[in-house]
Amino acid sequence: VVSKSGERTDEASAFQEGKSFFRSILGSMEAVYLSRNPTAKAILELVGSVNNDQICYDHLAFRTFGVNGHGIDSLARFFLDFGYTQREELKFPAKKLKALWYSPPDVPHLDSGSCVNGPLPRIFISELLVDQMSPKTQEIVRKYTEISGTGNKHAALASALGSLTWEKPKHSEFEELARESEYAAWTLVNGYAVNHVTISAHRLKSHLRDIKSLDRFIEDNGFKLNSEGVSPDGLLLQSSTVADTISFQFSDNITDSVPCSYIEFAERLLLPQYKNLRENEVKEFHRRDGFEVGNADKIFESTSKDQLSRIVA
Ligand code: OOG
Ligand code: NI
Questions:
Q1: How many whole angstroms from 1 Cα to the centroid of ligand 2?
Q2: Rounded mean pLDDT of the chain?
Q3: Based on C-alpha coordinates, what's the Rg of the chain?
Q4: Ligand 1 test: best mutation among 59, 264, 268, most atoms within 8 Å of CB?
Q5: CATH number for the domain including 268?
Q6: Which of 33, 117, 297, 304 could be a cystine partner for 113, CB 3.0 to 4.6 Å?
Q7: 239, 222 contact by CB (below 8 A)
Q8: Residue 135 lies in a domain
Q9: Which residues contact 149 (CB under 8 A, 6 or more apart)?
Q10: Residue 40 is part of which domain span?
Q11: Are strands 262-268 and 196-200 parallel, antiparallel or unpaired?
Q12: Mean pLDDT within 107-120
């Protein structure tokens, strides 16, 4: 197996043998996501059904608690082990969050795969800056990450199984976190589960390959979008649905609905220096890469109460 730079890599062969171990794990993470989020599942099926299209994932996203080794690094290790490269950091001071994104290894993929069997996705991992939270919130987050013990070393496994690495919290603890940070409350009940997958609009073959058409198609089919954003350079266009909710049984036997995951759409336009390429010459690296704080700031709110109540209302 030969990479773009022309060398033979072990890394590449780790992805070549049929359905690789790495892809199996991504597949388990995706299966958890699809089983808990009927909207995401329906949208993936719907978009894929137009001209029998293949879906490429632009990225998968995860949330973590940035405290005592339970933050971004706990999950990033898995992706780094399989050849991903750490890229830029994004800061969200008002939400007390930071994020890092990771680009996939340059491995050839068989053109026949869809979703986790398509081109490897970017990975976006964020963390709550726990030290900056109120004492009450810190106390709850520290309690559960301590209960987790060395669970942080098995973050990818937890994500693939759909298990929390800590015990279920009390309802009042969830509510307490939700008052200060929807992100914290989400992470307490969802742990390392996939927060969203993102459909790569420009890699669709149907007319949905521009995000405006895709957004309209999603809304015409009865789904609500939460946000639409364009990066300042105009080259990264993103939109997302409102998260599904799931019934969650708390440790004190109270059952309540909690936000689960949503689905996102991204269109990456050609970088200016490549805009005269013919369509069949265009590769992903000719397009705008990375993420954008302004877009992300709104996308984070896809799991927030205000958004969820919009669907119920
Ligand atoms: C992540 C929100 C940001 C993006 O693509 O910029 C994001 C989250 O909700 O955890 O997904
Ligand atoms: Ni995203």
A1: 31
A2: 93
A3: 19
A4: 264
A5: 3.10.180.50
A6: 117
A7: no
A8: yes
A9: none
A10: 10-312
A11: parallel
A12: 85
136 three-state secondary structure:
helix
- Based on the structure, what is the number of domains in the chain? 1
pLDDT average, residue stretch 23-42: 98
Q: How many CB atoms lie within 10 A of CB 21?
A: 11
Ligand number, closest to the Cα atom of 295: 1
Residue 2 in domain: no
How far apart CA 59 and CA 268 sit, in angstroms, is 12
Rounded Cα distance between 134 and 104, Å, is 36
User: What pTM does this model have?
Assistant: 0.94
Q: Residue 84: inside a domain, yes or no?
A: yes
At residue 285, what are phi and psi to the nearest 5 degrees?
Answer: -75, -5
**So what's the pLDDT on residue 9?**
56
Higher pLDDT, 257 or 11: 257
Give a yes or no: residue 200 inside a domain.
Answer: yes
Residue 63 beta carbon below 6 angstroms from any ligand 1 atom: yes
Query: Could you give the CA distance from residue 48 to residue 42 in angstroms, rounded to a whole number?
Result: 10
* Confidence check: pLDDT of 101 > 80: yes
ipTM of the complex: 0.99
